[in-house]
Amino acid sequence: MRTFLGAATMGLALLGASPAFAAEQTVTLSISGMWCAGCAYMVKETLWDVEGVQFVEVSARRKDAIVTFEDTETDVATLLAATSGAGFPSTVIE
Predict the structure, then answer these.
(1) Is domain 21-92 classified as CATH 3.30.70.100?
(2) pLDDT tens, residue by residue, 16-62
(3) Distance (Å, whole) CA 92 – CA 29
């Protein structure tokens, strides 16, 4: 019994110390001022530079970006600030 309690306590301690509650989030951003493939490339590279971003797909035709990120490392506000800082203001598409 003592071994079981020790193992259970250790397991709970490890669970609490790990990012077990991290979640992958996906958001679609409407990008203003994006007119060509060069603009789309700049937006894509800007979003990839944000820590925690896992996937980026940018469409100049649709003027949007689909971004998947780890919510313990970044958030939507940081993504919006990144595109705005690169000269392409964005908003979340609901």
Answers:
(1) yes
(2) 444 556 799 999 999 999 999 999 999 999 999 999 999 999 999 99
(3) 5
